[in-house]
């Protein structure tokens, strides 16, 4: 008769192994639908049991897209609901709207930069409340150069650069500058990043891509139905290629995760 002790010992060893600590990711963007650029990544970390939060500086109230709606509060409310729909599709934990007007972050004010100072306060409060391990936001290019994207990047970066070594890790998504002809026409005006600077490469699964596809369907005001249907596969083939590329705002060694030690 075989002894059950070795099998029992192995089972106990597995039970005694501490589970990996769930980490916290905070994504900060300018407008509802900005999250689509990294949607599979957000879905991946949510699926793996990490806490994933998202915040928007504005409600996109001046971006009617293809809706035919007039800019204003009603449009902003609709776009907030679209963002909530996308957050649910990606299984995100919380969603926050800072309430600034679309296109107003860089407005000339007295004193200068008042909206940005107010946004900085709100970002700081959100960081203190959520205590993320990692923050993801636009890089200085703003993707395709949108001023609100660039300003959100600057405000979030300023918050982290003023903090000590215990501050959250800050990362920017990027498109590798390889063969511009390989990018779809919709991305012809997007900024690219030298591949050597993209030190983070996060693989996603078919399930994550499916969640991203569901998130695309939420943004009915912004994209026609055929684009919402086809964009995820297009991005998967020509931009993401199975991995979301990012870089550290403040350089670290190359890694395959947004969280240390993973």
TrEMBL record:
Residues 1-22 form the signal peptide. Transmembrane segments: none annotated. Pfam families: PIG-L. Keywords: Signal. InterPro entries: GlcNAc_PI_deacetylase-related, LmbE-like_dom_sf. One of its GO terms (molecular function) is hydrolase activity, acting on carbon-nitrogen (but not peptide) bonds, in linear amides. Coiled coil: none annotated. This is PIG-L family deacetylase. It comes from Pacificimonas flava.
């Amino acid at each position: 008769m075989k002894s059950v002790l070795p099998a029992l010992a192995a089972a106990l060893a597995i039970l005694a192994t501490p589970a990996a600590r769930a980490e916290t990711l905070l994504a900060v963007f300018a407008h509802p639908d900005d999250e689509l650029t990294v949607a599979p990544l957000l879905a991946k970390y949510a699926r793996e049991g990490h806490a994933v939060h998202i915040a928007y500086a504005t409600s996109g109230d001046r971006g009617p897209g293809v809706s035919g709606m007039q800019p204003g509060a009603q449009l902003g409310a609709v776009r907030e609901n679209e963002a909530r729909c996308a957050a649910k599709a990606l299984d995100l934990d919380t969603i926050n709207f800072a309430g600034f007007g679309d296109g107003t972050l860089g407005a000339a004010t007295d004193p200068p930069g008042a909206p940005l100072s107010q946004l900085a306060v709100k970002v700081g409060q959100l960081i203190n409340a959520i205590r993320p391990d990692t923050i993801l936001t636009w890089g200085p290019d703003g993707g395709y150069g949108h001023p609100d994207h660039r300003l959100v990047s600057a405000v979030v970066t300023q918050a982290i650069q003023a903090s000590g070594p215990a501050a959250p890790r800050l990362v920017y998504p990027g498109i590798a500058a390889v063969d511009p002809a390989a990018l779809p026409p919709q991305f012809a005006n997007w900024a690219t990043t030298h591949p050597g600077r993209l030190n983070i490469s996060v693989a996603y699964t078919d399930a994550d891509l499916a969640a991203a596809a569901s998130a695309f369907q939420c943004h009915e005001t912004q994209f026609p139905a055929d684009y919402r249907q086809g964009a995820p596969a297009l991005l998967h083939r020509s931009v993401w290629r199975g991995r979301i590329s990012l870089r550290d705002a403040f350089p670290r060694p190359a890694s395959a995760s947004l969280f240390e030690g993973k």
